[in-house]
Sequence to fold (87 residues):
Amino acid sequence: MLVTGAVGFIGANLVKRICEEIPSAQVVGIDNLNDYYDVALKEYRLKELEKYPPFTFLRGNIADKPLIFEIFRKYRPVVRGILPPKD
Fold:
């Protein structure tokens, strides 16, 4: 699964949930770590996410077309469904 904005608040929580609930999933996160808000907070989240084996982080911008093509070439994404609501 490709998660953009992977170390932002929503993206990091999504990555964490996917990794915890679907351990067999390959999760690729992309984020440019911009300074829209405290970069140290994003770096902290990244450090926490790197503890999950199915997670791979790529620093980059979603608008970088060659990078996105390379991600799709390398990881060959397969969409299988969505996460069920958490009880």
